[in-house]
Design goal:
alpha/beta, 8-stranded parallel beta barrel, TIM Barrel, 11 strands, 43% helix
């Protein structure tokens, strides 16, 4: 399993994230993923810089780690033609280290353009059409598209990388696998669901990455770790059926008002015990994931996590 680090744009500013990206590469992480949000989940997190500007800077400040959006919604805030151009440019800046992670999005980020929030079936229709458009534009050929949801008029990407941009798509169940496995190179999934992984890999006999993400909250003081995880990550337990549809941080605060610190601590490994934190990876490894990105919850001790805990944590995870 390749082990990654999450540039959590909801909890840190852009200058801090750039520093963490460099430190994560030095600590030995294999890849780095960036969330792509317009708003944080909760006001306590307090940040949401632009992921594409950040990744462009990270591409220049690092030399080894792979980079990825985890994930970009290419249907509302961004037209798919714009996403294709961003991905091609970032691949050039990163010297072939970039993978484009795509998903159907969350109301939290997409409602800001004032176009409402479609049903899940419509969101999947939008995503499927967007993937086709992005694929065609990344060839560097002239593209005109007249679809159900999007139009592209005589568009061409003039700077196309020699190393093709690989596409990952976030899916959560068998219907998503059936629909998107033929269109994408890699599976993105936040739950260690072995059946979904098997369904995807069955459709990719030549091999495909399965990329997950898991939060932990390292701190020398376990109580402080639990308090921080509760303060900034209590939204996490709602699941994507809830998280995709709430429109504002205030909505997430209301939805999580009855969540207790002990509830968060039972779902997110907290404290100084690196063996316990490493065990968070076991369900993903057993489910067949090839890549797993850790989220260190909170901003205030990221530097210390990367300097003191990241290296030993990586050793423990790789021994799994």
């Amino acid at each position: 399993m390749h082990v990654g680090y999450t540039l959590m744009t909801e909890q840190s500013g852009p200058r801090e994230l750039l520093r963490y990206a460099v430190a994560a590469e030095e600590a030995g992480f294999d890849f780095e993923v960036s969330s792509d949000h317009f708003s944080p989940w909760l006001t306590e997190q307090g940040h949401s810089p632009n992921a594409w500007v950040l990744l462009g800077a990270v591409a220049q400040a690092t030399s080894r780690v792979e980079l990825m959006t985890y994930v970009t919604c290419p249907t509302m805030r961004y037209h798919p033609a714009v996403v294709a151009q961003q991905a091609a440019t970032l691949q050039l800046l990163a010297d072939g280290r970039f993978t484009l992670g795509l998903g159907a999005g969350e109301n939290l980020n997409e409602h800001v353009i004032g176009e409402g929030w479609p049903s899940i079936d419509v969101r999947h229709d939008l995503l499927e059409e967007a993937v086709h458009i992005i694929r065609e534009l990344l060839t560097g050929e002239l593209v005109t598209w007249e679809g159900q949801h999007f139009r592209v008029d005589s568009a061409r990407l003039w700077d196309v990388p020699d190393v093709a941009v690989q596409l990952g798509v976030a899916v959560s169940g068998p219907k998503g696998v059936e629909r998107f496995a033929p269109l994408a190179d890699h599976l993105i999934q936040v739950q260690p669901d072995a059946d979904v992984v098997q369904g995807w890999t069955d459709r990719h006999p030549g091999g495909s990455r399965v990329i997950g993400q898991v939060p932990v909250c390292w701190d020398p003081d376990e109580r402080a770790a639990v308090e921080r995880a509760f303060r900034e990550f209590r939204w996490f337990g709602g699941g994507w059926a809830v998280n995709a549809d709430l429109p504002t941080p205030a909505g997430f605060a209301a939805a999580s008002q009855f969540v207790r610190p002990e509830d968060v601590a039972s779902a997110i490994a907290c404290g100084p015990d690196l063996d316990k934190l490493a065990e968070s990876a076991r369900p993903f490894a057993e489910a067949g994931f090839t890549d797993l990105a850790f989220v260190q919850v909170g901003d205030e001790n990221q530097d210390r996590f990367l300097a003191e805990a990241a290296g030993p944590l990586l050793e423990r995870v790789r021994k799994l």
